């Protein structure tokens, strides 16, 4: 049996194998390329998603900052408005509050009203303050100021033919060893009481000297109370006639 050598067939097989090898490598390269492309697409999508998330976060932060700035500006505007209103109210209050002599008179009038003096009487006295007054001579008397340690006799004096009684009390003076002495301490507040014949009273308190006026009928008694010798106070009064007016006669 003889073997025939066919070079053409062998050549074709070799070419086929080469072609198959090229096709195989091409297919492998294509698969790798497709896989790499898919990976690139996924990475691109992930990067886009991350970038979009960062952009959204930055937009949200910027919006929050803008809202915070707006709120801060509104709060500052409200604070400025409130401060302006407070300053305006303070200025109006200051304008309404009396000062100087007017404040002194206002305080005195309020104290007299608290003591029970009629408002009509106070208005009459203020209205007649500028008019000339006829006053009698000064009268002075002394009495012992009562203390917790002394409530004995000679602790009051009378004026206006006994129609006004003046009495008072104070704190006991103390020795260097803090012992209680029998007389009052002129450096502490005292209380002076003026009692009319009908029982009406008016009271003035403070550190001596003290001043007080009592109206009785158509007369005004102006009292001054000062510290005198130990245990004693001196009461001085001027007796002045009130102006004759229809309002005074009606009272």
Describe the protein's architecture and organization.
With 251 residues, the chain is an alpha+beta fold. It folds into two domains: 1-97; 128-250. It has helices at residues 7-96, 100-114, 119-127, 246-250; strands spanning 134-135, 139-144, 156-159, 164-169, 172-174, 180-184, 190-196, 201-206, 210-216, 219-227, 232-241. Strands 1, 2, 9, 10 and 11 form a five-stranded antiparallel beta sheet that branches. It has a four-stranded antiparallel beta sheet with strand order 3-4-7-8, with no helix packed on it. A two-stranded antiparallel sheet has the order 5-6. A hairpin with a 4-residue loop joins β10 and β11. The chain is rod-shaped, with a radius of gyration of 54 Å. The N and C termini lie far apart (173 Å). Residues 245-251 have low confidence and may be disordered.
In short:
By secondary structure, the protein is an alpha+beta fold. The protein is 47% helix and 26% strand. The C terminus is likely disordered.
Characteristic terms for this protein:
disordered C terminus; 251 residues; 4 helices; four-stranded antiparallel sheet; five-stranded antiparallel sheet; 2 domains; alpha+beta; single chain
């Amino acid at each position: 049996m003889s073997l025939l050598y066919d070079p053409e067939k062998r050549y074709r097989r070799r070419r086929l194998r080469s072609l198959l090898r090229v096709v195989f490598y091409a297919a492998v390269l294509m698969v790798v390329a497709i896989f790499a492309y898919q990976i690139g697409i996924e990475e691109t999508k992930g990067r886009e998603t991350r970038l979009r998330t960062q952009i959204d976060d930055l937009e949200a932060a910027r919006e929050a900052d803008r809202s915070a700035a707006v709120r801060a500006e509104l709060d500052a505007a409200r604070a400025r408005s409130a401060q302006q209103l407070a300053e305006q109210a303070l200025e109006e209050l200051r304008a309404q509050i009396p000062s100087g002599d007017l404040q002194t008179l206002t305080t005195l009038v309020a104290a007299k009203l608290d003591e029970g003096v009629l408002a009509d009487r106070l208005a009459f006295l203020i209205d007649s303050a500028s008019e000339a007054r006829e006053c009698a001579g000064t009268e002075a008397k002394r009495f012992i100021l009562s203390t917790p340690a002394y409530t004995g006799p000679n602790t009051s004096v009378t004026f206006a033919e006994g129609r006004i009684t003046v009495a008072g009390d104070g704190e006991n003076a103390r020795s260097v060893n803090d012992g209680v002495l029998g007389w009052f301490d002129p450096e502490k507040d005292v209380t002076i009481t003026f009692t009319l014949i009908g029982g009406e009273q008016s009271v003035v308190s403070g550190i001596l000297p003290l001043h007080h006026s009592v109206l009785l009928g158509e007369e005004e008694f102006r009292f001054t109370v000062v510290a005198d010798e130990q245990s004693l106070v001196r009461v001085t009064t001027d007796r002045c006639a009130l102006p004759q007016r229809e309002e005074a006669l009606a009272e």
